[in-house]
Amino acid sequence: MKRISVLLFALFFIGHAGLLVQAEEKPDYEKYGRIATVVVKEDYPGEDVVEYKYGGRRKLTENEVMDSFVFIVKEDGKDKTILVKVTHLLSDNKSLSLTVEEQK
Asked: The whole model's pTM is what?
């Protein structure tokens, strides 16, 4: 339930942030990176995100792509690698699916 609330907040934030930044063109994956960051911080509360990297985009269908983001989180003094995959439609930039995986 907590994750759903965070996602809804992130979607609301993105919708309003997009209106404010129309004059300045940003990479189209940037807003999905912000969503991924919110989710990682929610899943690891109080832990430091020590590194963040855009992992690239993979085209799944004509209208659907997956952006991946790699986070290094320091938990109990140890680094953990977290992979977040955001699948979304290019046509509306609103429909999305998120996957969070802790790499071993």
From this structure: 0.72
Q: What is the mean pLDDT of the chain?
A: 82
Residue by residue, DSSP assigns 6-55 as: HHHHHHHHHHHHHHHTTTS---TTHHHHHHHHHHHHHHSTT-EEEEEEEE
Least Cα distance to 68 among 44, 49, 94, 40 occurs for 40
Q: Is the model more confident about 2 or about 92?
A: 92
- What phi and psi, each to the nearest 5 degrees, are found at residue 5? -60, -40
Number of neighbours of residue 60 by Cβ within 10 angstroms: 12
Q: Which two tokens stand for residue 42?
A: 């929610």
Q: What angle do CA 66, 3, 98 make, to 5 degrees?
A: 10
β-sheet bridge partners, residue 101: 83
Percent of the chain whose pLDDT exceeds 70: 75
How far are the Cα atoms of 9, 66, 96 from residue 58, in angstroms, in the given order?
26, 5, 14
Please name the residues in contact with 49: beta carbons below 8 A apart, sequence gap of 6 or more.
37, 40, 41, 71, 72, 73
